Amino acid sequence: MGVNGYGTIGKRVADAVAAQPDMELVGVTKASPDYGVEAAARRGYDLYAAVDDRADEFAAAGVDLTGTLGDLLDAVDVIVDCAPSGVGERNAPVYEAHDTPAIFQGGEDAAVAEASFNARGCFEAARDADAVRVVSCNTTALSRLLAPLDEAYGVEKARVTLVRRGGDPSETDRGPINDIVPDPATVPSHHGPDVNEILPDLAVDTAALKAPVTGMHTHSVNVTLETEPDESGVRDLLGDEDRIFLVPEGAGIDGAGALKEYAADAGRPRSDLWENCVWEESISVTGRDLYLFQNVHQEADVVPENVDAIRAMTTDVDAPESMARTNETLGVGLRSRLGNDELGRAELAADD
Amino acid sequence: MGVNGYGTIGKRVADAVAAQPDMELVGVTKASPDYGVEAAARRGYDLYAAVDDRADEFAAAGVDLTGTLGDLLDAVDVIVDCAPSGVGERNAPVYEAHDTPAIFQGGEDAAVAEASFNARGCFEAARDADAVRVVSCNTTALSRLLAPLDEAYGVEKARVTLVRRGGDPSETDRGPINDIVPDPATVPSHHGPDVNEILPDLAVDTAALKAPVTGMHTHSVNVTLETEPDESGVRDLLGDEDRIFLVPEGAGIDGAGALKEYAADAGRPRSDLWENCVWEESISVTGRDLYLFQNVHQEADVVPENVDAIRAMTTDVDAPESMARTNETLGVGLRSRLGNDELGRAELAADD
């Protein structure tokens, strides 16, 4: 495998691929020799220039290249495109010219690939495709949440307000500062239709804002279900999903800051949260209306999905087996032993 | 009339009362001689000590007092309590002891008063009451929005996510910084039941977050209506409400910052937005589901409601007449001549 674009998503996907016993990371590309090349070098990843005529810049910066993008494409079974939004579409003809199957990210239009992908929602869609698009962080999180709810209760209609982070922590040119911006101001946003690329028959309306935060997206979710759930049933259902982390009541985790702190304390690389983080306390039911809040780590939640997409395209491993391998190798499946019951706290004290 | 607590809300209510030809502002109280006393003095308002045994502090700061709270209570027909949340409840027995009818703010529990009040929703509820509570900024805005929708289409169920400002611009001790916090983490929040103090039969579920902004609250609103609306009908309906400002498409107003700038340019005192600010572009309908975004200026939108509450308690003026007088004297009813049609722009160019 290769990764084209060793940036926010690319460096995480590269590490995740390198951690799979059944995959080999051949190399990664960068467009310019910035601080990212040091991270790649420390990990021993072979580096390729993403743009042929900028290879000189790397030499000038004292960075050794193994080759350029074309060399990487000829050496891999699948290229994972982690270029900035919109650049993937421009790369697509290059991948085709080298006859290299490609995985794109959710910043691209769905039309860039034969199939959109979420492991929980539509693993088999990637099976015979030469080009697959792993949907965006928000669509990934909504698919993971809505798929089990639809299976267990039937979704009559989902209505979600996405309060999006303005930019990632390293994106110093993003806004807003001290404002909440309807983005887009029109409703519904594109996120609902994007969920339908994964779950075609599910009725979902989304409205999106952006806020002056960098840590995570926050979703305020309403789902009108076809059959009336009870809260403990929903908690159990979601708690059984490895890619959903139920944030326990009483653990003192009140927002993205504490969630990232929790992930860092758990030894997660880059404090990554690969799971949807659903506040257990927020899960509530009135009639057939389910409400909850979930947080989404925009830099991380698509990473295991990229690994599964590679397996779906290149092997005959099925969805449960692929997801289990990915979860096991990365350590996906954060579980808290904190809770409101005495037993949970006692166990924690004994173990730690 | 008197105002007990010349703070964020109190100073605005005092100015609004002073602007009414049919009302007289006798004076205002402050708990301590901070910068607020200068604003009161500049306007020529008589100042009273809110707490008897702290009158010395004012003398020490060189501030002349007309008297203390008790003196003010004996001189007025109605006292408007604008004390911090929770302090109003402690003041209630004092008002009763002086036999002075009182208006409380929405930070108090509904039980503090005989009736909760919103001019558009339940003006007559205050008619014979000795104690009235003007509901909070968020409840005020939701009542103004849902009352006309319920009258025109019938509300089957409203579901609202409130993304609240963390603190007012002057509140330097508030958070969050760089985080979005479910607040409360449990759903539904208290806002829905508070709307039912105004509109008792309306089904409304609310979920609340707080964000690192100071300017305004943002509401992401879904209303399932009993009859199917069309978007232009909803725009016309809301556009006819004087206390709703339809933020025009194409005016370049993308958030609270630009809204406040617009208000400042319009000559509004303190850049106040007394109206709900509904993004015209966001009004959308799918089947019987209406969606929209609205912004709420937490420091200002209850101000005209306080004026109307005074009139409801002390006169036999009816709701439309009182609201018209308040709107006229304050200048409530922001209208933009910007729009997407050529005519609107031409008129603006000719006038300004």
UniProtKB/TrEMBL annotation, chains A, B:
Q: Chief location of this protein?
A: cytoplasm
Tell me one GO molecular function of this protein: NAD binding
| Active site per the UniProt annotation | C137
- GO biological process terms held by the UniProt record: glycolytic process
Q: Where in the cell is it found?
A: Cytoplasm
Q: Where does NAD(+) bind?
A: T8, I9, G107, R165, Q298
EC main class here is oxidoreductase
| PROSITE patterns registered for this protein in UniProt | GAPDH
Q: List the GO terms this entry assigns under cellular component, sorted alphabetically.
A: cytoplasm
Enzyme Commission number(s) of this protein: 1.2.1.59
Q: Which domain of life is it from?
A: Archaea
Catalytic activity annotation: D-glyceraldehyde 3-phosphate + phosphate + NAD(+) = (2R)-3-phospho-glyceroyl phosphate + NADH + H(+); D-glyceraldehyde 3-phosphate + phosphate + NADP(+) = (2R)-3-phospho-glyceroyl phosphate + NADPH + H(+)
The entry's keywords: Cytoplasm, Glycolysis, NAD, NADP, Oxidoreductase
Transmembrane spans: none
**SMART domains in alphabetical order:** Gp_dh_N
Binding annotation for D-glyceraldehyde 3-phosphate: S136, C137, N138, H191, G192
Transmembrane helix in keyword set: no
- Pathway noted in the entry: Carbohydrate degradation; glycolysis; pyruvate from D-glyceraldehyde 3-phosphate: step 1/5
Domain Glyceraldehyde 3-phosphate dehydrogenase NAD(P) binding: from-to ranges: 1-137
Q: Which InterPro entries match?
A: GlycerAld/Erythrose_P_DH, GlycerAld_3-P_DH_AS, GlycerAld_3-P_DH_cat, GlycerAld_3-P_DH_NAD(P)-bd, Glyceraldehyde-3-P_DH_2_arc, NAD(P)-bd_dom_sf
Q: Which family does it belong to?
A: Belongs to the glyceraldehyde-3-phosphate dehydrogenase family.
Report quaternary structure and partners: Homotetramer.
**Protein's name according to its UniProt entry:** Glyceraldehyde-3-phosphate dehydrogenase
